[in-house]
Amino acid sequence: MPQTCKTHLECSLCSKIFDAGRAWNLCDCGGPLLVRYDLARLRAEWPRESLTGAVNSMWRYAPALPVSHPNSIVSLGEGMTPLLTTRRTGNRIGAHNLVIKDEGLNPTGSFKARGLSCAISMCVEMGVKVLAIPSAGNAASALSAYAAAAGLEAHIFMPADVPQANFIECKAYGAHVTLVDGLISDCGRIVGEKCKTTAGQPGAWFDISTLKEPYRIEGKKTMGYELAEQLNWILPDAILYPAGGGVGMIGMWKAFVEMEALGWISSKRPKMIAVQATGCQPIVRAFEEGTEASRFWDGASTVAAGLRVPKPLGDRLTLQAVRESAGCAIAVSDRDLMDAGIRLASEEGIFAAPEGASCVAATERLIREGFLKPDDQIVVYNTGSGLKYLEAYSVRFPRTAAGQTDKLGGLITPR
Amino acid sequence: MPQTCKTHLECSLCSKIFDAGRAWNLCDCGGPLLVRYDLARLRAEWPRESLTGAVNSMWRYAPALPVSHPNSIVSLGEGMTPLLTTRRTGNRIGAHNLVIKDEGLNPTGSFKARGLSCAISMCVEMGVKVLAIPSAGNAASALSAYAAAAGLEAHIFMPADVPQANFIECKAYGAHVTLVDGLISDCGRIVGEKCKTTAGQPGAWFDISTLKEPYRIEGKKTMGYELAEQLNWILPDAILYPAGGGVGMIGMWKAFVEMEALGWISSKRPKMIAVQATGCQPIVRAFEEGTEASRFWDGASTVAAGLRVPKPLGDRLTLQAVRESAGCAIAVSDRDLMDAGIRLASEEGIFAAPEGASCVAATERLIREGFLKPDDQIVVYNTGSGLKYLEAYSVRFPRTAAGQTDKLGGLITPR
Question: Distance of alpha carbon A183 from its chain centroid, rounded?
Answer without folding.
Answer: 20
